[in-house]
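Team,

Forwarding the record for the chain on the shared tracking sheet. I've put the sequence and predicted structure together so nobody has to dig through attachments.
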Amino acid sequence: MRVVVDTNIWSLALRRLPTSLSAVEHLHVASLADLVRDGRVLAIGIVRQEVLSGVPDERRFAELREALARFPDEPLHASDHVRAAEMYNLCRTRGVQCASIDILLCAVAERLSATIFTTDADFDRYAGLLPIQLFRPRA
C-alpha cells in the first residue's frame, strides 16, 4: 500500500540531526527509508512547502529541495478539496478540531486508498471519524 508522508516525518528525516532523535523517532526515520526503498511514498505539494518553509539558510534550503525533488507531487483534484471540506465539517460537528492541511491529506489518502504516516496525534482523532488508515511503523 502507498503511504502519504506528513511534514513531521519528513522533518525528522531531513531537518533533524540523527543524534537528536529518540528511539521512536529513529524508528520513524528507518520506516520512511524502507518506504522510499520500496517506492511506496506519496508526496503532496503542500507538505513539500511546509518542509521547506522556515529554512533561512539558502544552502540548506537547496539541499532539502533536492532531497525532496526525487518525489513527484501527487496531483490534487478539485474533488480533493471538496472532500476535505466534507471531512472537516464532519469532524467539527463531532467536536474534533481540524487543520485544513491535515484534512486535505486525509482526503487525498482516501482517494488513493493510501495510508498516512504521521506523528501528529490529531490524525488518531480523525481516524476515529473518517475512512482513513494510519501507517504504523514496526519495530
